[in-house]
Write a structure and sequence with these properties.
Layout: E1 4-13, E2 22-26, E3 31-35, H1 43-58, E4 66-71, H2 82-89, E5 93-99, E6 105-106, H3 116-128, E7 141-144, E8 147-150, H4 166-170, E9 174-175, H5 188-195, H6 201-209, H7 225-242, E10 247-248, H8 262-272
Parallel strand pairs: 1-4, 9-10
Antiparallel strand pairs: 1-2, 2-3, 3-5, 4-5, 6-7, 7-8
Bound molecules: adenosine-5'-diphosphate and magnesium ion.
Protein name: HipA-like kinase domain-containing protein
InterPro entries: HipA_2
Organism: Streptomyces cinnamoneus (Streptoverticillium cinnamoneum)
């Protein structure tokens, strides 16, 4: 189970992405980035954060530690922003926290280099979870103490918004052409050979067990949280076996040119030897 703490102070909102997470302090003296159950995106975003974050870490990718955070909305009473007030009010009880990495920088592909092996592992993992939020527009990667850290897995596993179609979704390909690491020559084949065999029922079951029951109850078509956990396990297990063969990187045709800015295209073309 994830460690549980209680928020003691709302420090400030983070306005970079869309979901308005906040920085909070907690009773363990830790500082966390808090994702709210009351946010418009709903609790499935938090389920995705837990499953994908825990899975990434188990595969050796760097993800800040996750925690369950209890919130009494009263701690936001002095907060002047209406939007933040409403969010806190709607989020009493259990929320998700991610260890705040002080001084971390947003990943900038011009300022930071990674190698083909690491790029390959990240791209393969994003293909597995069908992450549409690691593009050059919106990298959701941080650089901290000189290393890459993965954050923000809320917009992944699209199939959990439509379970009847999940089996089909598991077979879908992944287009990594706009992936922020596409220009680092990601060695997807090696990553697949290394990581796919590690995705087992046991590992996925452990990861799914970290999702609080509260976020899994009342899903239509499922007989309780454990049945829903098994569905997450099944789709990811099935996808892990073959997704490595269905990833395209930087293969844009002339009639569908990349929308990427010039510097991304120069890098892509340069690395591809064109
Ligand atoms: N653990 C963290 N440590 C430091 N900064 C973070 C951390 N998590 C998020 N941030 C910062 O907050 C921003 C928003 O967080 P993110 O998880 O991407 O939420 P969203 O995009 O849904 O608003 C990030 O782009 C990043 O700048
Ligand atoms: Mg984000």
């Amino acid at each position: 189970m994830l460690p549980e703490v209680t928020a003691t102070r709302y420090v400030t909102p983070l306005r970079e992405g869309g979901s308005l997470p906040g920085i909070v302090e907690a009773d363990d003296l830790g500082t966390y980035v808090m994702k709210f159950t009351g946010a418009g995106q709903g609790r499935k975003t938090l389920v995705a954060e837990v499953i994908c974050g825990q899975l990434a870490r188990r595969l050796g990718l760097r993800v800040p530690e996750l925690a369950r955070i209890q919130l009494d909305p009263v701690i936001g009473r002095g907060e002047p922003d209406q939007e933040v007030q409403a969010l806190l009010k709607a989020s009493g009880g259990l929320n998700l926290g991610m260890d705040f990495l002080p001084g971390a920088l947003g990943f900038d592909p011009l300022a930071f280099e990674t190698d083909a092996a690491e790029a390959g592992r990240v791209v393969w993992f994003d293909a597995l979870i069908n992450n549409v939020d690691r593009s050059w527009r919106n990298p959701n990667l941080l650089v901290w103490h000189g290393r890459l850290w993965l954050i923000d897995h809320g917009a992944t596993m699209i199939w959990h918004h439509n379970w009847p179609s999940a089996a089909t979704a598991a077979g879908k390909a992944y287009d990594a052409s706009d992936h922020v690491l596409a220009s680092f020559d990601p060695d997807v084949a090696t990553a697949a050979a290394e990581l796919a065999p590690r995705i087992t029922t046991e590992l996925l079951t452990e990861v799914a067990a970290d999702v609080p029951d509260e976020w899994l109850v009342d899903e239509p078509g499922f007989d309780g949280p454990d049945a829903l956990r098994r569905a997450y396990v099944e789709v990811l297990l099935e996808r892990a076996a073959t997704i490595g063969d269905r990833i395209t990187v930087g293969e844009r045709s002339a009639d569908k040119p990349s929308q990427a800015p010039e510097w991304v295209r120069v890098r892509l073309n340069g690395k591809a030897g064109k």
